[in-house]
Amino acid sequence: MAIARVLFPLPLPEPFDYAVAEDMVVEPGSYVRAPLGKLERVGVVWDVVDDPNGRGGNLKPVLEVYPTPPMGADMRQFVEFAAKYTVTPPGHILGMSLRSRGGLSPSPTERAYRLTGERPAKMTPARERVIAALTEIGEGLGPEIAAAAQVSSGVIKGLVEAGAIAPIDRPIDLPFPVPANTPAELDLTAEQAEAADALRQAVMAGTFAPYLLDGVTGSGKTEVYFEAIAAALERDDRCQVLVLLPEIALTQAIWSRFRDRFGAAPAAWHSGLSEKERRRTWREVAHGRARIVLGARSALFLPYRKLGLIIIDEEHDGSFKQEDGVTYHARDLGVMRAKLADATIVMASATPALETTVNAQQGRYAMLKLSARPGAATLPDIQIVDMREHPPEKGQWLSPVLREALTETLIEGQQSLLFLNRRGYAPLVLCRACGQKLQSPGTESWMTEHRYTGMLVCHLTGFTMRKPDACPHCGAVNTLMGVGPGVERIAEEVRALLPEAKIEIFSSDTAQTGEDTRAIVERMAEGQTDIMVGTQIVAKGHNFPRLTLVGVVDADSGMKGGDLRAGERTFQLLSQVAGRAGRAEHPGRALIQTYQPDNPAMMALAMGDRDGFLAIEQAVRNEMGMPPFGRLAAVVLSAPSAELVDLFANEVAKAAPNGTGIEIFGPAPAPIAIVRGRHRRRFLVKSPRDVDLSAYMAAWQSKLKVPNAARLSVDIEPYSFL
Ligand code: ADP
């Protein structure tokens, strides 16, 4: 007999032992069902060991082995690595991989009917219509046939009994169509061809090879990585490709491009999938039949059988960092996933993250550069508007310079985009009588006013309420007023300036469904919209050929707070937004409103000097020993009262192990010190680059007992400093 060591998708430290019946075939990686406590659970066999002493006799048995190919050794190593790196139990990581139980079993079936070729002895007009309908559609579900032939289900039943049609049980989840390489009808430029060749060779070699594909927006990065995907499809007929994009960049346009190029849509993985779509993708990936997966960050954890290539498009994007539950960065873990799978990984961006740039400079990643936009398209002209010199009128947010540009653009029949990364009407609601600002209950965060819905919303916790008539603090009536602008208010200002313009607001409030988004994007792309006012949702993946003016309403908003990456992120976001202008025949311009025109990020934007900006950022971070030159980790504690959290924070501080070069800052109240009634404290831990900070954090955590009401979370390489 053998013993199977089974890992469950639960926060348990280790796999558990189970007896394996003689006639059961399990191997490392097998997906199994086994009893755990009072329940039966799905887990993965981590190891199979011999049982010479018959100890297995006392163990509970493995109940079932699923007909899914075992999880590969590379994936199991990845689960272990990711667990160590993020300081989480391996079962938590496994849980992120086992996101669809339905995918473990073969597809459920549905009953369809098709013709047998026999004619029924008795023919009626209704029966004729059914036979005619089935002759046309081949096979169909009962209700489909009944509707097509306009008959009742009794007629179908009668035909089955007469032997003229036969039921078949067919799978509901169909395999994905096999992609094929249908080369684009464009000639790659010399630098594109060079980059594509390098990637092709790397993919064909089948060894770990990380690349940074650095090229301005519109330089054809997508065309280049399509060549790498084509190579992976050619290499062997099982090689799989994962393409990760930020969720909001998974637009219709990118799916169409894949369909055009590879003759079939890729398998999808993102938060908007139905359970049925989820189980289909999971099953097809695990069986190695889904060849191209296009998804958001969590697609990294799918159990690919043979991963040959990973593409991380927009690799600098902050949304690759998951902040809830297991905190991880899909780019950083992606590199390790590629390494363990002997795969090529391509990180593509027009504004690479400093971390990635430094890795490329130091030779850890190979660098591929695309410096030009093919064809006539040119980069937009970027102009900084110094708001101290060109202040807006009272109660307005657009400077005279931007107002004039908007008017000109409308007269010329071109489109404009105003960018402000704030949803709603006003980010703050204040009582004119008592001066109090409205806060979300039990949370140190302001309520945002949304005029369209008449609601006040806390963007941190999602708490929503009707805007009250009276101030909740002093009771004065009609004294609540919104302070500062959100996209709705900017749209109002534009409407007053240009009443004849067609204005559209594009934010997660107006685009709640894929259908809304498609409609908004289509109206803009087809020129029905004159002026779009949008949040960061506009920054990615959309191509608006007639957009010639981009106005950034408040370039300084992302710079506030003590965030390490504020300057870098502002630069990336604004470059991306500005890059929306003038993609096609029309030259574009971007006007950037700022009160800090001397800020290095603004100066670099104006001069188009990305590398100069990165060099300054790099020097500053190097000086301070900040990432990527040193390592950072954060610990966030929370508890229902300030006393409790402070007591616990003291315990945590005392338990910190000694470590060479390790510096601990805190405990300090987190910048948002109270969320949903929980008080929060924060430690920041800094170490030199050569220290295994994850191991240090794990050692620290193992010395702690977290009180029942308290919570502790560790974040390796934090991106959010709230
Ligand atoms: P990126 O991913 O760098 O933003 P894309 O790959 O999306 O760039 O290319 C931008 C546009 O330029 C696309 O419409 C693409 O089809 C086109 N394009 C890319 N390379 C070429 C080329 N060599 N010749 C003509 N058009 C090209």
Q: How would you describe what is shown here?
A:
The structure is a single chain. With about 725 residues, the protein is of the alpha/beta class. The chain is about 30% helix and about 25% strand. It has a 7-stranded parallel sheet with strand order 11-12-10-13-16-9-17, sandwiched between helices. A 6-stranded parallel sheet has the order 18-28-27-19-26-25, sandwiched between helices. A hairpin with a 2-residue loop joins β30 and β31. α1 runs antiparallel to α10, α3 (about 125-135) crosses α4 and α16 runs antiparallel to α17 (about 610-625). The chain is globular and about 90 Å long. The two termini are about 55 Å apart. About 45% of the residues are buried. The mean pLDDT is about 90.
Can you summarize this structure?
It contains 19 helices and 32 strands. With 722 residues, the chain is of the alpha/beta class.
Overall form:
globular
Pick out the low-confidence regions.
none
What is bound: which ligands?
A: adenosine-5'-diphosphate
| Proportion of beta-strand residues | 15-25%
The helicity comes to: 25-40%
Q: How many β-strand runs?
A: 32
What is the arithmetic mean of pLDDT?
92
Please give the radius of gyration in angstroms: 29 Å
Put simply, the count of helices is 19
Strand order of the largest sheet: 11-12-10-13-16-9-17
Structural class: alpha/beta
Largest sheet: 7 strands, parallel
Distance between the termini: 53 Å
Provide tags for this entry.
single chain, 722 residues, alpha/beta, 19 helices, binds adenosine-5'-diphosphate
